[in-house]
Design goal:
81 residues; mainly alpha
Length: 81
């Protein structure tokens, strides 16, 4: 990775995968970190573009089609005795 600081994430979509792995306490070999970076760099710009689009005022009321809810009667739904 370059030591230059990009003007924005869109100017240089590479992530510091090694730093993220350290924060997550996930030991990655340099080869594995390079593979992760390659995958992330493919979708980074499109993901940011979608995030900006969905953050626009006209999209803020949209809700996901799929909503995950716990099953009814699950133990965590029951009051504690």
């Amino acid at each position: 990775m370059s030591n230059q600081t990009p003007a924005s994430a869109d100017d240089d979509p590479r992530l510091d995968v090694a730093a993220l792995a350290r924060v997550a306490d996930l030991p990655l070999t340099p080869a594995r970190a390079a593979a992760v970076e390659a995958v992330l760099s493919v979708w980074w710009r499109d993901a940011n573009e979608l995030s900006r689009k969905m953050s626009a005022e006209r999209h803020r009321a949209l809700m996901p089609v799929t909503v995950f809810t716990p099953p009814h009667g699950a133990a965590e739904d029951s009051p504690q005795s």
